[in-house]
Design a protein that fits this description.
Elements lengths: L13 E7 L5 E9 L5 E9 L6 E2 L7 E6 L5 E6 L8 E6 L6 E2 L8 E5 L5 E8 L1 H5 L26 E2 L2 E2 L4 E8 H10 L7 E3 L12 E6 L4 E7 L9 E8 L5 E8 L5 E3 L4 E6 L11 E6 L5 E2 L15 E3 L5 E8 L2 E8 L7 E4 L4 E7 L3 E8 L2 E9 L5 E3 L5 H4 L8 E8 L8 E9 L13 E7 L14 H9 L3 E6 L8 H5 L5 H16 L5 E11 L1 H12 L5 E5 L5 H7 L4 H7 L7 H6 L13 E6 L8 H12 L4 E6 L6 H4 L2 H16 L31
Parallel strand pairs: 33-34, 33-35, 35-36, 36-37, 37-38
Antiparallel strand pairs: 1-2, 2-3, 3-4, 5-6, 6-7, 7-8, 9-10, 10-13, 11-12, 13-14, 15-16, 16-17, 17-18, 19-20, 20-21, 21-22, 23-24, 24-25, 25-26, 27-28, 28-29, 29-30, 31-32, 32-34
Helix pairs in contact: 6-7
Protein name: Dipeptidyl aminopeptidase/acylaminoacyl peptidase
InterPro entries: 6-blade_b-propeller_TolB-like (IPR011042), AB_hydrolase_fold (IPR029058), Peptidase_S9_cat (IPR001375), WD40 (IPR011659)
Family: Belongs to the peptidase S9C family.
Length: about 700
């Protein structure tokens, strides 16, 4: 058998966005694989629920996404970058065979794709500028059109960049496309835009707002949301709108606070939406509320559930319009729940203990979902609406896994003393331990170095699978024992657990993490003298915090971290995280925020520390990483700064394949150089490309 390696990322298939065909006979899903060192191919596959093999449904040309069956099931709409441009456009293909046809040629891409109940129209959003609207590029644009790069870039918004891009005046707007008219237009020429209607930013609606989360009610009613407030970028309040397409009337019917990513409506006017209390919102749990347009009443079906709907979780109505399905973090799993929309019963867990459920789709009699478990990175499954029977529909990585030794993580629960707390209470922390493939429990004289991995968020959770499956298995295959846990601040254990790090990210989290490390180091096969630490985002913050507070780690790798809370506050699109978690701003409590920052304590670092960051990470911008790296250099610490061009905050999950591999190999190479068990020289003493299968893209200039 061949051990799992970092470069195997090129061979691993990822699946996402399962969608039931009407009648529950087939499920469409997106199958994504690395195409080369820089790009991916994503195509739509369809798999019968009855058990036959999945088959490719769209051509391998570009990146396909958002498969959506028409209500009658005769057509499949999807978004794709295929063709002459890399702009995402709307395509339509008959489900009984035939060529896909492009229905749009818009400037701003396609998002939030959804069919009307009668199948005559398609709802979507796109990101456009006022000039795009004035020149009708949001309706139809020449394929050769390329927007000019601003020179200079003039910024008026509080939040002016996100993901890997500057917004440059673009706002999200809602559109409806007449399918029959678009098909008629596409028969003779490129889509001319006559089939598209603008729904937002018209009449009395301001054009300089982001209109998000559109969804159909009945065939003539669309609902969507927009931030309100004197400065919407500084607001957590969303206004929800009802848009009557027959009359054009727009009515604001309720408000919510938090982060609205989705609305889900029934055809009789009940709208489900997210609600997060505004006070300390970044730490609080997100509930699902249901507004009844007929009565004006609002209920909270998730009120009795001490779990949050958030962090890659979703919700949707069942086709009967009576039951809501939702996913939440839950003690190291991402699980599926059902609850009556009228809140007449408490939520009931449908499925998911010990697993990681991704996207899901609710059919008439079943639920399709993507599921990752300890022994595979993700496949499409289906279960009955009550979760009584489960069937696996795909095994997309069967060939890859056939000759790979995959270890099952061991679950551990830890009792932690809050020694720094006035109450001196004890609490439980859940964690996992993954051993190398060759580990033999009876060979007690064999010892392995320990890698501690700290999750991001901070209000997120680790599982035994999901996006970290390949990384954990790769490090274990290189001879390391891997430990990860969900310290206080994590989701999935109730609101008290998540809010326990208020105004104290570092000490509280580190107390829990080190308690877990101490516990696993009691095992004879763990080499207590060879401990290493890494983490990304908040995990990068905690890696840096850990090496400023203790010298127990032989080496550290801090990834996409936050190192100075003040600089982070002024450069991120997520400054509300500081306001919510710390109840502070840099001008109100500058000394406090500095003391809570790893950069303030860099003089105490002795641990060799690799700092990794992406050039276009606008969630945790690189300026604070530069500060921490400079501090390490000034104090004589073994360090190196690795920066990835073109990448953003999602490098580890969806970056260019060569960068994903390079990042993982550099982590292992850095640890190897300080592990006596690996007999490898430190990375600083090796040739730049030594041990890196994907090559070295660093500048050849001196560091």
């Amino acid at each position: 058998m061949r051990s799992i390696q970092a470069a195997d990322y090129h061979d691993i298939v990822q699946v996402s966005d399962p969608q039931f065909e009407p009648g529950d006979e087939r499920v469409a899903f997106v199958r994504r694989t690395p195409e080369d060192d820089e790009s991916y191919t994503a195509t739509i596959y369809v798999v019968p629920v009855g058990g036959d093999q999945p088959r490719q449904f769209t051509a391998s040309d570009g990146v396909d996404s958002q498969p959506r069956f028409s209500p009658s099931g005769d057509r499949l709409a999807f978004a794709s970058t295929r063709g002459e441009t890399d702009r995402q456009q709307l395509w339509l293909v008959p489900t009984d065979g035939g060529e896909a046809r492009r229905l749009t040629s818009v400037v701003g891409g396609i998002g939030d794709l959804e069919w009307s109940p009668d199948g005559s129209r398609l709802l979507f959003t796109q990101q456009v500028t006022p000039d795009d609207r004035e020149t009708n590029r949001d309706l139809a644009v020449d394929p050769d059109y390329e927007p000019e790069e601003p020179d200079p870039r003039v910024i008026d918004r509080m939040v002016y960049r996100a993901g890997t891009e500057y917004l440059d005046g673009r706002r999200s707007h809602v559109y409806a496309l007449d399918v029959a008219a678009a098909l008629e237009s596409s028969e003779t020429d490129d889509p001319d835009g006559d089939a598209i209607a603008r729904l937002t930013g018209t009449d009395d609606q301001p054009v300089d707002r982001d209109y998000v989360a559109p969804t159909w009610g009945d065939g003539e009613t669309v609902y969507y949301a927009a931030k309100t407030g004197e400065v919407p970028d500084d607001s957590l309040t969303y206004e929800l709108y009802e848009h009557d397409l027959s009359s054009g009337a727009v009515d604001s019917f309720t408000e919510t606070t938090g982060w609205v990513s989705s609305l889900e409506a029934t055809d009789d006017g009940r709208i489900a939406f997210e609600y997060t209390p505004e006070e300390n919102a970044s730490m609080r749990q997100t509930e699902i509320r249901v507004h009844d347009r007929e009565t004006g009443e609002e209920r909270t079906p998730t009120e009795s559930l001490d779990r949050t709907v958030g962090h890659r979780c979703g919700f949707e109505w069942a086709p009967d319009g009576e039951t809501l399905y939702l996913s939440t973090p839950d003690e190291g799993s991402r699980v599926l729940w059902s609850v009556p929309g009228d809140a007449s019963e408490d939520p009931a867990k449908v499925y998911g203990d010990g697993t990681d459920i991704g996207g899901f789709s609710v059919g008439e009699n079943a639920v399709a979902y993507v599921l990752s478990e300890w022994d595979h990175p993700g496949d499409v499954f289906v279960t009955t609406r009550g979760g009584n029977e489960v069937h696996r529909l795909t095994r997309v990585n069967a060939d890859y896994l056939a000759d790979k030794p995959v270890r099952q993580p061991e679950e551990v629960w830890l009792e932690v003393d809050e020694e720094s707390s006035e109450s001196e209470e004890r609490h439980r922390i859940q964690g996992w331990l993954l051993t190398p493939p060759e580990f033999d429990a009876d060979a007690t004289d064999e010892q392995y170095p320990l890698v501690v991995n700290i999750h991001g968020g901070p209000h997120a959770q680790w599982t035994t699978s999901g996006t970290m499956w390949h990384e954990f298995q790769t490090l274990a295959a290189r001879g390391y024992v891997i430990f990860w846990c969900n310290p206080r601040g994590s989701t999935g254990y109730g609101e008290d657990h998540a809010t326990a790090i208020e105004r104290d990210w570092g000490e509280v989290t580190l107390t829990d993490v080190l308690a877990g490390v101490d516990a696993v180091c009691e095992r004879e096969y763990v080499d207590e003298g060879e401990q290493f630490v890494t983490g990304g985002s908040f995990g990068g913050f905690m890696t840096a915090w850990a090496v400023t507070q203790t010298d127990r780690f032989e080496a550290a790798v801090s990834q996409r971290g936050v190192y100075d809370l003040t600089s982070f506050y002024g450069s991120t699109d997520a400054f509300k995280l500081i306001e919510g978690d710390f109840g502070a701003t840099p001008w109100e409590e500058p000394e406090f925020l500095w003391e809570q920052s790893p950069a303030a304590h860099v003089a105490g670092v002795d641990t060799p520390t690799l700092v990794m960051h992406s050039d276009r990470d606008y969630r945790t911008p690189a300026n604070t990483a530069e500060l921490f790296y400079l501090g390490l250099q000034k104090h004589g610490v073994d360090t190196r700064l690795v920066r990835y061009p073109r990448e953003g905050h999602e490098l580890s999950r969806s970056g260019e394949p060569a960068h994903v591999v390079d990042r993982l190999e550099r982590i292992a190479r850095w640890f190897d150089g300080y592990a006596d068990s690996h007999e490898a020289p430190p990375a600083l003493e090796r040739e730049r490309t030594d041990g890196l299968s994907s090559g070295d893209n660093e500048s050849k200039s001196e560091e």
